[in-house]
# Entry
Amino acid sequence: MENLEIFEKACKYFSDNISEFKEILSEKIPTLNDKDWEFDKGSTKVFKADETGRKKRCKTGIAYRLKIELTEADAETVWDNFNIFFEKTYTADIERVSGRYKKTDLK
# Structure
């Protein structure tokens, strides 16, 4: 496993996981295959320095989007594959900032 304490490596790891998951869904659900997915690379937020002088960063809004109607069975397939895929990754271990950040927290 790569060192996910390094911000850039953690961002790449998470982005790669999302891309791989999108490909898995596209293979398993025919209505998602060969569609024009929209990708949003997200944005990076930088917080003001803490007592040690370090500035925390977080990445928000990384997403793939596709406007399409799914059957109930397809939605269940998405959910089942989500659970299977992400339990094999370190995504659950990524630190999350709960709630909204405050303007005073940003530099």
Summary: Residues 9 and 57 are 13 Å apart (CA to CA).
